[in-house]
Design goal:
Elements: H1 5-8, E1 26-28, E2 31-33, E3 39-43, H2 50-62, E4 67-69, H3 87-100, E5 103-107, H4 114-120, E6 123-126, H5 134-142, E7 147-150, H6 157-169, E8 175-179, H7 195-204, E9 209-211, H8 213-217, H9 223-232, E10 237-241, H10 259-279
Parallel strand pairs: 3-4, 3-10, 4-5, 5-6, 6-7, 7-8, 8-9, 9-10
Antiparallel strand pairs: 1-2
Helix pairs in contact: 2-3, 5-6, 9-10
This protein binds phosphoenolpyruvate (PEP) and manganese (II) ion.
């Protein structure tokens, strides 16, 4: 026990390890997250068209992704930007699952939408901007679907663990934590990827931890190296944006990989994933 963690994380007892080997393996659509396999979730920022989504689903599956991501409800900084296809987008995601066997992760933004999103998705994503929306956390938790909880851009590790505890306290132990970069004084990247925070999470929490290098970097050239650093740091998986034609994407094109860039990244990650098993251990526990 060290660094005052016991006090800092006192509000999140059920998501902490009580022994170094404690871990929650989250099952979603036949995929185990937080187990031995490194799980990549990939797809477009937004679901745009049937063709865009199907093509992406097929290509990311062929490259080794296990879960398809795609936003049907989009939290956009501008009210004039594309807000997502809503229910039509959810239906396209379900069709892509039927065609490829990939599990589906998609964001839910409003508590009232949680049951509907849960009908179509295998994992409900709580976005960075919603991490502390407790009414939404409750509604999402109560659907019984696994929750992918993104770290708020100004949230501390304790804040993230408190939100995870909130989901667990509503009777849903299946939470996946996601480091997607935090806001700092640095402006050369969209956010600052907190690799140290991710290692802390792996060390203290029993929950699976994945990395989103796309939103951390904001720039596609940085994504493969960040992904590699996440694997080396012991992450359980990745959430990556991929688009058939990133320069024409309706959102987040500048950070989305092309199919060929994604394929190369996945092939390059394979040996790192092999090594990861021997590095993924905790040195101490706080609970
Ligand atoms: C996304 O995954 O497309 C997204 C909006 O992410 P975040 O909530 O991390 O900004
Ligand atoms: Mn995005």
């Amino acid at each position: 026990m060290g660094g005052g963690w016991k006090d800092q994380f006192a509000d999140a007892p059920d998501v902490l390890k009580s022994a170094p080997e404690d871990k929650t393996v989250v099952w979603a659509g036949g995929v185990a997250i937080g187990g031995d396999e490194f799980v990549t979730m990939a797809g477009p920022c937004s679901v745009e068209t049937e063709r865009q989504l199907m093509e992406t689903a097929e290509r990311v599956a062929a490259a080794g992704a296990r879960v398809l991501r795609g936003g049907a409800f989009k939290p956009r900084s501008s009210p004039y930007a594309f807000q997502g296809l809503g229910l039509a987008g959810l239906k396209l995601l379900a069709a892509a699952r039927a065609a490829t066997g990939l599990a589906i992760v998609t964001e839910v933004m409003a508590a009232a939408d949680a049951p509907m999103v849960a009908e179509y998705a295998d994992i409900l994503q709580i976005g960075s901007r919603s991490m502390e929306n407790y009414a939404l956390l409750e509604a999402a938790a109560k659907t019984g679907r696994p929750i992918l909880l993104k770290r708020g851009m100004v949230a501390t590790i304790a804040d993230l663990l408190r939100s995870a505890q909130c989901v667990v306290s509503y009777g849903n132990p299946n939470v996946i934590l996601c480091e997607r970069g935090i806001r700092t004084f640095e402006t050369a990247t969209r956010n600052t990827f907190d690799v140290c925070g991710m290692i802390v999470l792996k060390e203290v929490s029993r929950l699976p931890v994945i990395a989103d290098p796309s939103h951390a970097a904001g720039r596609r050239s940085l994504v493969p190296a960040l992904a590699r650093s996440a694997v080396a740091a012991g992450a359980d998986g990745l959430l990556v944006e991929v688009h058939p034609d990133p320069d024409r994407a309706w959102s987040d094109g500048e950070q989305s990989l092309t199919f060929s860039e994604f394929g190369t990244m996945m092939a390059d990650l394979a040996p790192w994933c092999e090594l990861r098993a021997s590095c993924n251990y905790a040195l101490e526990t706080v609970a």
